[in-house]
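sorry for the late reply, my laptop died twice this morning and i had to redo everyting from scratch. anyway the thing you sent over, i finally got around to it. pasting the sequence first so we're on the same page, its 155 residues, then the predicted structure underneath. double check i copied it right bc i was rushing
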Amino acid sequence: MWILHFLPDAFITWFANLVLLAGVALTVMGLFVHRLPIPVLYQYQLMFKLLGIVVLCAGVYLRGGVAVEQAWRDRVAEVEARLKQAEEISQRENTRIEAQVVTRTRTVRERAQEIVKYVDREIVKYDTKFAPGGICEIPQEFITAHNRAAEVPAK
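ok and here's the structure:
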């Protein structure tokens, strides 16, 4: 019931209970109005019964609406609690993943620096060797260094 969102919870419960009790009272009054000492009320016996039943039905409907609204609010609170727990777990996992990324990045950079040092130390020896006709000879150490650079680092 959409109107329940705009009213305070205590008022809604109180009002639903009041309507339900009024319906019960009117229905009972309609059933036993002929035994009351006020003879004028006897002519309104049918009206008391009908109005009592209508108000009783409205009270039951309101109580049901309040119960359903409370059940939905409880479900929302439960889902919010689970969401908060999932966010905490996600935050811990993100921290762990970030640590792994930093470690792998550091490993890749260190490996790249080792390869650069190797190239500077070993491959430079072959820079002065040129074949006739301006063609450069590719040494085996260069091929090895290139292949090592392309390998996945061992753990």
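The mean pLDDT is 83.
thats about all i looked at so far, will dig more tmrw
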